[in-house]
């Protein structure tokens, strides 16, 4: 895309129409975006709006016109230099360079990379590897978006506005096929970088002021009791499928996410207050403590792999495959078991929260503690009311009798 530039001089009278000698302003326009500054000269009644200069041959008119010509020449010189050097070009950049403020210019991808470098140095010290990967992915999407717009390799922070943000959101959904919530997550990551820029006074205003994040409620799948039984009693002739099924069932009865079951070690199993075995481990995602009593099914799976090489060679409780392989094998397991749901490692956590605990009367506060949630609002996402629970609750209501007697009179 060809970058176009123009410069216009005009007396700024919109704010003070009664002013006889308004100040002459220079307006730079680059690709339809403007930036202006004062020339510190006054326009008299000898100003020609069509020519954009003073008329006449007085000493004052010649001096002002020479100064305006000098501004025009310097602005075009700055534009040519930026073009040759392949640097970002905008009306604001040119204005700032002309006014000697170019050292203050910081660019988006540059600041984003500095932020990611800091996060990387703190992985394991307050940040997880997953958090780092999300910020890296957000930066990559922004870099690709700039290339998609046929811009330079970066963009000055001061050039980012609501139009850029909404365009990025549309790009994620249309060009990258991101779901609404996924696109929103990337933009929230982007928003944090702009907040950092605002705090450091790299920008004068928050371009996200008019942008509000919106999240779409997504139904979370889980296994029913019948489906859990199908899975648990299915005999597999292929050992890898049996192994992945066992780990999945273990997560269904403990609520552990993939990252947490993968790092589970013998030291995470301790005697609880009731004398039974408990899992006490910090979640990798939030670093919060999960306290989970071992249900019989989960305990039996641990006993099954008690002598597995993962205990001695890796100091892990269970032989967990990579998340990618596990999810691939779970699709195969679902087909074999006749389960028409997209099985993933995280679906096991949903199953624990709904079928195993909440639907069987376990209080939400207890479930929240076992899941290691930092907020009860997060647990409420899993608080699904199953059809079977609705049915049993309504049966209890029926047993209490009707509110209307046979004669149509209301019963108190």
Automatic annotation (TrEMBL):
Q: Where is the Core-binding (CB) domain?
A: 110-198
Query: What Pfam families has UniProt attached to this entry?
Result: Arm-DNA-bind_5 (PF17293), Phage_int_SAM_5 (PF13102), Phage_integrase (PF00589)
Q: Which InterPro entries match?
A: Arm-DNA-bind_5, CB, DNA_brk_join_enz, Integrase-like_cat_sf, Integrase_catalytic, Integrase_recombinase_N, SAM-like_dom, Tyrosine_recombinase_XerCD
Domain (Tyr recombinase) ranges:
218-395
Q: What SUPFAM superfamilies does the annotation carry?
A: DNA breaking-rejoining enzymes (SSF56349)
For whether the record's keyword set contains DNA-binding, the answer is: yes
Keyword Oxidoreductase part of the UniProt annotation: no
In terms of superkingdom, the source organism counts as Bacteria
Q: Name one GO biological process term.
A: DNA recombination
The UniProt GO MF terms for this protein read: DNA binding
Entry keyword set: DNA integration, DNA recombination, DNA-binding
Entry's family note: Belongs to the 'phage' integrase family.
Q: What is this protein called?
A: Site-specific recombinase XerD
């Amino acid at each position: 895309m060809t970058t176009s530039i123009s410069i216009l001089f005009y007396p700024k009278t919109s704010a003070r129409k009664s002013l006889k000698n308004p100040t002459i302003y220079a307006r730079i326009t680059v690709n339809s975006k403007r930036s202006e500054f004062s020339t510190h000269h006054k326009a008299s009644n000898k100003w020609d709006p069509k020519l954009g200069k003073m008329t006449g041959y007085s000493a004052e008119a010649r001096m002002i016109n020479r100064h305006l010509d000098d501004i025009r020449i310097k602005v075009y010189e700055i534009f040519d230099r930026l073009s040759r050097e392949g640097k970002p070009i905008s009306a604001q950049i040119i204005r700032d360079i002309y006014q000697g403020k170019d050292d203050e210019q910081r660019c988006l991808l540059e600041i984003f990379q500095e932020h990611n470098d800091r996060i990387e140095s703190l992985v394991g010290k307050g940040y997880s590897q997953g958090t780092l990967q999300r910020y890296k992915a957000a930066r990559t999407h922004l870099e690709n978006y700039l290339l998609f717009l046929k811009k330079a390799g970066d963009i000055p922070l001061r050039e980012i506005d609501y139009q850029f943000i909404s365009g990025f959101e549309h790009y994620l959904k249309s060009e990258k096929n991101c779901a609404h919530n996924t696109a929103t997550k990337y933009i929230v990551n982007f928003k944090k970088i702009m907040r950092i820029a605002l705090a450091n006074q790299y920008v004068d205003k928050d371009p996200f002021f008019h942008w509000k994040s919106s999240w779409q409620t997504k139904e979370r799948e889980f296994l029913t009791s019948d489906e859990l039984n199908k899975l648990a009693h299915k005999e597999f002739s292929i050992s890898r499928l049996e192994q992945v099924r066992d780990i999945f069932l273990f997560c269904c009865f403990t609520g552990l996410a993939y990252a947490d079951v993968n790092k589970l070690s013998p030291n995470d199993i301790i005697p609880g207050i009731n004398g039974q075995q408990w899992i006490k481990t910090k979640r990798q995602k939030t670093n919060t403590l999960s306290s989970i009593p071992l249900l019989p099914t989960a305990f039996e799976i641990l006993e099954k792999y008690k002598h597995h090489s993962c205990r001695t060679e890796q100091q892990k409780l269970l032989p967990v495959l990579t998340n990618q392989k596990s999810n691939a094998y779970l699709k195969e397991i679902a087909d074999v078991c006749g389960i028409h749901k997209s099985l993933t490692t995280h679906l096991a956590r949903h199953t624990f929260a709904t079928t195993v605990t909440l639907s069987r009367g376990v209080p939400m506060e207890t479930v929240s503690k076992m899941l290691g949630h930092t907020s009860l609002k997060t647990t409420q996402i899993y608080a699904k009311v199953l059809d079977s629970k609705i049915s049993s609750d309504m049966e209890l209501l029926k047993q209490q009798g009707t509110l209307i007697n046979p004669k149509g009179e209301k019963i108190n």
